[in-house]
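User: structure tokens for this one?
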Amino acid sequence: MLGTFVLELWKALEPSEHRAVLKFLDSPFHNQRADVRSLAALLADTPIAELNHLHKETVYEVVFPGEAYDNLRFNYTCSFLAQRIEAYFTWQEMDSNGQWRDWLLEKVGV
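Assistant:
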């Protein structure tokens, strides 16, 4: 997985953010994909020093047990996790900044 966008994004997060992202992904409002939760949990459970040594095929086996490796499916899952991490940061910013919340509510006419 070395060099993948999702891995670089994950490594840039603080450990407390890892936990917060996992909670975010557990919400069916923010994520309905079990494969994305599994991938994030695997990354969270892997020590930072070992993240660069993860191989796509090994990770795939954990995320999709008993299934033959499918690079397109794996890349799609990684992409979706990256999108969910970005959504987490967007949600956090909106939640912590009253101006954004007020602006969005005004925009929808509330």
